[in-house]
């Protein structure tokens, strides 16, 4: 169940109730349906209604969906026409990234009141290391409760939080009791918590990986932990070491507040392999819609555009183009992507994934942001 402010104080202790020295105290805070919630906050007529942020035209893509819309199956990165078919009463709102960035800044001010060790993942989520209790609040759980309350008071928005002794578990926990929830995974509980999760909850496990795992008899964390490292490496290659550690609740990564962003991008894995030129071009436009919004969120300026495809035999190919100056706008980003795609046509075989990235970023070293996650997917 979600923890509430009037619950008894609890810290990151082991199952015996004893303090566990030497472990980090990590909080992952994730705003609830952030973009859509901002729109509902600013327009009372939208409250309680299914809302999608993004374009409603034929090539539009959902950037975010309210919880009311999610009940109909609407989700981010879904084509707008599909979303409208699932939810005929869906209300589309145009993205307002200047407003989202302003609200995100207010939220980060709350984070930095409690710790300097803040690692933003996007405008609406971040890791915090609160091992040092700066204000003597008494526990990581209580700090998370205070943060959620301060965010609500400052922005009139709700946030969910996960508290644990590493980043992997804290991120899993923040999703456990959404929306407006709190979940704590204490030392000694990580492996058992992961064991009960469906394999799809593991970061980086997409639909195709899930299908492959199911064929191998892996449906839950418990199934995964039963496989030895040799089996995992034979079937999942370089992904095996991550799976082996994650199944045991192990993650030694620190919270890093000063990692410099190298690129901004995203990719889409298809349910059915595609190879036709018109469908590939349509897909590229959909990917551009999502990636350009991420570029705007990050205020990124870059000179290199890369188009990546993964064929149905899992071989990867990519083409890139570097300009003498930064990409001017979405139209130029799209045109470059289409040009790279034309260079690759006709494809030697169907593809199962397409992605685009903007790199050789300029003006970002002054900002304390993270690297883009290579596993980040549009679906």
Automatic annotation (TrEMBL):
EC number(s) on file: 2.7.7.7
Q: Which residues form the UmuC domain?
A: 26-206
Q: Does the keyword Magnesium apply?
A: yes
Which residues lie within the region annotated Disordered? 1-21
Instruction: Output the GO biological process annotations, alphabetical, semicolon-separated.
Output: DNA repair; DNA-templated DNA replication; error-prone translesion synthesis; SOS response
Instruction: Give the protein family.
Output: Belongs to the DNA polymerase type-Y family.
This chain's function reads: Poorly processive, error-prone DNA polymerase involved in untargeted mutagenesis. Copies undamaged DNA at stalled replication forks, which arise in vivo from mismatched or misaligned primer ends. These misaligned primers can be extended by PolIV. Exhibits no 3'-5' exonuclease (proofreading) activity. May be involved in translesional synthesis, in conjunction with the beta clamp from PolIII.
**Protein's name in the database:** DNA polymerase IV
